[in-house]
Amino acid sequence: MRWFGHLTEKQLRRGAFSGVDDLISAINEFIDATNDDPRPFVWSAKIDDILRKVGKCKAILEAVH
Predict the structure, then answer these.
(1) Total structural domains in the chain?
(2) Torsion of CA 18, 21, 23, 28, to 10 degrees
(3) Using CA of residue 15, residue 19, residue 21, residue 24, what is the dihedral sign?
(4) Is the pLDDT score of 59 beyond 90?
(5) Other C-beta atoms within 10 Å of 61: how many?
(6) Structural domain of 22
(7) Is the model's pLDDT at 45 over the cut of 90?
(8) How far apart are CA 50 and CA 48, in angstroms?
(9) pLDDT at 1
(10) Of the N and C termini of the chain, which has fewer Cβ atoms inside 10 Å?
(11) Tell me, what's the pLDDT at 36?
């Protein structure tokens, strides 16, 4: 799972935060817990697939502007 997706699912989605400081604290807690048991990120997409998607997004943005 993507790191930000994991952060959202495990720490933020159902959280109730009284302000920005609470949100920052929750994010920092997640980072600390993740760093306690670090695991390397393994890319599963092929570079050609990534570049194709980037090309599609670029074409859409250029068509809009």
Answers:
(1) 1
(2) -150
(3) positive
(4) yes
(5) 9
(6) 3-64
(7) no
(8) 5
(9) 56
(10) C
(11) 93
